[in-house]
Amino acid sequence: MKKLLLLLLILSIIESVSAQGMWLPSLLEKQNEKEMKSLGLKLSADDIYSPANPSIKDAICQFAGICTGEMISPEGLLLTNHHCGFGAIQQLSTLESNLLESGHWAKDRASELPAEGVTAMFVTRMEDVTIVALQGVTENMGERDRQSQIDKNIASLRSTTKKEKWEDVEVRPFYNGNQYYLFLTQTFKDVRFVGAPPSSIGKFGADTDNWVWPRHTGDFSMFRVYADKDNHPAPYSKDNVPYRPRHFLPISLDGAEEGDFTMVYGFPGATNEYLTEEGVRLTGEVLDPARVAIRDRSLKIMDGFMRKDPAVKIAYVSRYASIANAWKKWLGEMQGLKTYKALEKKRAYEAEFTRRLEQNPAWYTRWKNLLPRLRQLHKDIEPYALARDYYSETCLRNNEILATAANLNNWISSYDPKNETVFTSKLMNVRAAMEDFFKDYRPEVDEAVLAAMLEMFGENTKPEWGAKDVQGMAEQAGGYPALAKQIIGNSTIANRDKFRALVSSKTPAEIYETLKNDPAYKLWDQLQGYYAAQVQPKIQEIQPQINLLQRQYMAAQMEVFKETRFFPDANSTLRLTYGKVRGFSPRDALQYEYQTDLDGVMEKYIPGDYEFDVPQKLIDLWKAKDYGQYATADGRLPVACIGTNHTTGGNSGSPALDANGNLIGLNFDRVWEGTMSDLNYDPAICRNIMVDARYVLFLVDKFGGAGYLLNEMKLVKGKKKRKK
Ligand code: ARG
Ligand code: GLU
Hints:
alpha+beta; 7-stranded antiparallel beta sheet; globular; binds arginine; binds glutamic acid
């Protein structure tokens, strides 16, 4: 009986391994086409990715290096998330004209605003270059020699690959370094802001609703990609013209219903699906809880200040959101790993792996030590990984003043009394960066956060990592709050006037002397010294051994579980994931439907609230049920939906497509219960969240009054056969 249960468990794990995946577009025909068609896809693999002919791939770009965007018109109109365009829109906003808050639509091409620094990267083609990249690499080579051989091979690949002068070549490792792929790309740098709904819609639900279903956020914004007159990437110029992509996505007015095929095409950032039980335990039971506990404290403190003072709220809202985003994800991840028994599943999988080795002498000789050694190394690295996260969270991520000291370090330590030119040449940039920093810096907030961070560091880490020093300093000062007060009160880099006076009236030697002795800089320098001496070397010693064994483990799994298709972990390269639009049951007796609508927005509406307020115009449209062609057959306006697409950070802004390759939505999040999917994807509960294309169009047209943009789009309706 026990054996049978184990077998069933293993079968279900192997099955779930093949149901998930972030697949390589160039391998779809070989690996996925059949399955995709059985799920409902009406296109061929070649329609989705082709190195030679126009294909859907030509409509997909990496947006701003961290998100995904897609072409939705023949004239370079780009759709991405609101939270992806947020930084750029913020840059373009002023107090008098706050485009973020009010929402904005350029009234014509000439009024589209250059979004400085924003890029759009398209993939021309990709190619398996494993054989060349691994030339001269042997099994018993040391890791360092191996890497330098690979680096040499890659360098020569890059220089010998034929490319146009506006193209770039990139080579990246896949399957933990067992395979290598080359990407030919082109990156556009003239990207202009076209429009976005007001934040109250684009960020509706903000941090409370983040990572949660049911969701009601209109998370989208639009940009336009500009090219030179030959349609190639070029720096910003007023003579540039809208980019003409080889493909753009038609937009469906039909949406998707439960059970319909969907796929998401984009640039997922990082996953770790092939860790051992011990590796998952390290993240889920050691690192996640520590990081969550640290951020709990800093977030509570920031929130307290933000609620008291609207000016502080404006200054800290973006910082708060980004700290809260990962905090909430880790919390969901550690709970999900536990609830859905990730460790037990890994254990059963490893037992099956070992059982198969034992039945095959060649495998056994080669790999019998793999898992025991990997387990041991994850145990060995645990205290150092924890120390690393403690250091980076308390001393860098969650307080501002030590982080600023760290940022200034390069400059400060470039001072040379015999030759001051390097130091002075950097001064302009430093001043600009510091002015930027001071704009949103509130010393009283940071002081409270710093006190909490130093306390966590002093009380929870080891003496030899700097805890003893911090404890001693706190004792001397009369407690952690007093210590933080002393540091911030006496620091030149925490005080705009003092800093301005210093850099505008003192000699380089005096500036150097002052900063070198600045209490915040000194403390950071001291703690970073411990980190560099006690923690980093250990990580640098153990991590490469883990990487080596993970690489071997990956190769071994691919051999031992021949019947399974393995996808490579996400690495910010172009991937396709597919599945079905589908609700789920998060708990016993509870069933989540697959779609939300505007009535649901109004259920959550709280007048005046900073997360759940909405503009009057939206309320009016809702009251009048004035949804035009965007309504469902039963008169509702769909807002968001969920599906079984396997996505991760970086997939924000990725198009959700139907079986015909029409846009039905825009990926922007995952459900709370399934945030563990980076380590343990479970098709029963992991869902991606998409904003419905009809809500996007409604907001552009009916709400935003920018219906003229629809003229350049291709809207499709009625193509889909309705099932009963
Ligand atoms: N959770 C989504 C993602 O990981 C959305 C983040 C932006 N929204 C927010 N409230 N912080 O990026
Ligand atoms: N919001 C995430 C992003 O910015 C996508 C959600 C996820 O992590 O799956 O990429």
